[in-house]
Design brief:
Layout lengths: L2 H7 L15 H9 L11 E6 L1 H8 L6 H8 L2 E7 L18 H20 L3 E5 L4 H7 L7 E9 L13 H4 L5
Helix pairs in contact: 2-5, 3-4
The protein binds flavin mononucleotide.
Flavin mononucleotide binds next to helix 4 and strand 3.
């Protein structure tokens, strides 16, 4: 699969087969995600892999619906965590007024890289931002120097997800000469 096919065909997957990831693939996905760019290569993103009974408990913090089903079914859910104070704050160089927002920017780049890497290896993913962060962070024993930012379900897709429409290039792109 080339990069363009990977970008175009990756979809958010909300139904998963019960099969586990092939041994070593989780580590490969995280290694590939580590190649995402980050502010001054500060690499503020960390991952906690959730499986087993803790995953079933986690689903309770997602309410009803497709995202809770995805967390229940997917063999692995990754808790994406950020270490604040690394991104956007480089001593000796000009900072800018976006400040700590660069932390979340770096998380986005890392997670997109992770989702594309997982897809290239044959897996579906779902990014989940809407859940009870405080409850989930407590359940997962997220260290106090990290913030739980997002969940990502990973597993073999059990659905052919349709592609939601995108804005056109004309809507997205403006020019200045
Ligand atoms: C930051 C972020 C948070 C998201 N949170 C959720 C979520 O809580 N529940 C959900 O079902 N999908 C969630 N999604 C998936 C989006 O709904 C999905 O990416 C979008 O509809 C486009 O579909 P596609 O990924 O198949 O191209 C999230 C995506 C992103 C990038």
């Amino acid at each position: 699969m080339d990069a363009i096919e990977c970008i175009l065909k990756r979809r958010s997957i909300r139904r998963y087969k019960p099969e586990p990831l092939v041994e070593g693939d989780l580590e490969r996905i995280i290694e590939l995600a580590s190649w995402a760019p980050s502010w001054a290569n500060s690499q503020c993103v960390r991952y906690v892999a959730i499986t087993g009974s803790r995953k079933a408990q986690l689903a309770e913090f997602l309410g009803q619906g497709s995202k809770a089903l995805a967390v229940s079914q997917a063999p692995v859910v990754l808790a994406v965590c950020a270490i604040h104070g690394k991104s956007g704050v480089l001593p000796g160089r000009p900072d800018n007024d976006k400040g700590d927002a660069w932390t979340y920017f770096d998380c986005g780049g890392a997670v997109q890289t992770l989702c594309l890497a997982a897809f290239a290896l044959g897996y579906g993913t779902l990014q989940i931002g809407a859940f009870d962060y405080q409850g989930a962070a407590q359940l997962l024993d997220i260290p106090s120097d990290m913030e739980l930012v997002e969940l990502v379900a990973v597993g073999f897709a059990d659905i052919d997800a349709a592609a939601p429409a995108r804005l056109t290039v004309a809507e997205l792109l403006d020019h200045r000469n």
